[in-house]
Specification:
The chain is elongated. The chain has helices at residues 77-89, 145-156, and strands spanning 11-16, 19-24, 32-33, 38-47, 50-56, 67-70, 92-104, 109-119, 128-134. By secondary structure, the chain is mainly beta. It contains two helices and nine strands; from the N terminus they run ββββββαβββα. β4 (38-47) and β5 form a beta hairpin.
C-alpha cells in the first residue's frame, strides 16, 4: 500500500502505538494502516472415525490440509467453521472442542481451530480439488500452524506421528 485510501496522499512509515506503521503523510489526515491479522477458522474434521483433509483448487497436487476459510462479517468463529465445513464437504458439524488460536505471520492470519465431528453425506465443494479421508494413525502433521494443531490433536489421543516437512 503506497497511498492513503482516505485522502490519496502518500503513506510513510512512522511509529504509532509502539510499532512502525504506514501513516498518511498529510498532517490533516489521521489515517493509519494497522495491518491487523485476518481471522481464519479451521477444523480438524472427524468423520466416521477418520479425519477429512482437503486440497484447494490452487494448491499443488500433494498438498492437503484441514478445512479452513475466512471468518465472515457478523459471524462467530463457531458459526464460521461450521459454515466452511458445509461449503467444502457437504457435512453438518458438531463442535467437540476448541483447539486454540494459531498465528500464521507469513499470511498475516490468525487461525481459530476447532475439533469438529462431521455427519451426513460427504460431497466435495466447488473450492476444492480433492478430499482425502485419513485414519488418525496414518495422519502426519505438517510444518504450518494447522499442522501444529493436528500434532496437538493427535497427541491428545496418544498418537505420535512423524512430522511431514513442507513449507506453505
Amino acid at each position: 500500500m503506497k497511498y492513503c485510501p482516505a485522502c490519496g496522499s502518500s503513506l510513510a512509515v512512522k511509529e504509532r502505538s509502539g510499532r512502525e506503521r504506514l501513516i498518511c503523510s498529510d498532517s490533516q489526515c489521521d489515517f493509519t494502516f494497522w495491518h491487523n491479522p485476518v481471522p481464519v477458522v479451521g477444523a480438524i474434521l472427524e468423520y466416521e472415525g477418520q479425519v477429512i483433509l482437503t486440497r484447494n483448487t490452487w494448491w499443488p497436487e500433494d498438498w492437503f490440509g484441514i478445512v479452513t476459510g475466512f471468518l465472515e462479517s457478523n459471524e462467530s468463529p463457531e458459526e464460521g467453521v461450521l459454515r466452511e465445513i458445509k461449503e467444502e464437504t457437504g457435512l453438518e458439524g458438531e463442535i467437540v472442542s476448541f483447539m486454540g488460536n494459531f498465528s500464521f505471520p507469513r499470511k498475516n492470519e490468525l487461525i481459530i481451530i476447532f475439533h469438529v465431528k462431521g455427519f451426513g453425506t460427504l460431497k466435495k465443494g466447488e473450492e476444492l480439488a480433492e478430499i482425502k479421508v485419513v485414519s488418525p494413525s496414518k495422519l502426519r502433521p505438517w510444518d504450518s500452524p494447522t499442522g501444529e494443531a493436528v500434532r496437538i490433536w493427535l497427541a491428545q489421543r496418544g498418537i505420535v506421528n512423524d512430522l511431514i516437512t513442507r513449507h506453505r
